[in-house]
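Input/output pair, single chain:
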Amino acid sequence: MSSNLLQRITYNPDICHGKPCIRGLRYPVELILELLSSGMTMDEILADYDDLEREDILASLQFAVRLSQVKSIYKIAS
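Output:
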């Protein structure tokens, strides 16, 4: 199921400067994660954003999980 969910995350340099978005719409994954972290429920988000589906929110969470599974983080010299 997770691979199907991740197919909802798209990249397009012409949409939101190439940030990962939901299904080619102008909803960056970052926005969904910010809404959830602010305390909004999935139902509240879906009520506010008619274009979104429950699976889009789950895909955003799965995307965040994948990003957190990096093996190493290196500091870039400033």
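The chain has four helices and two strands. The radius of gyration is 14 Å.
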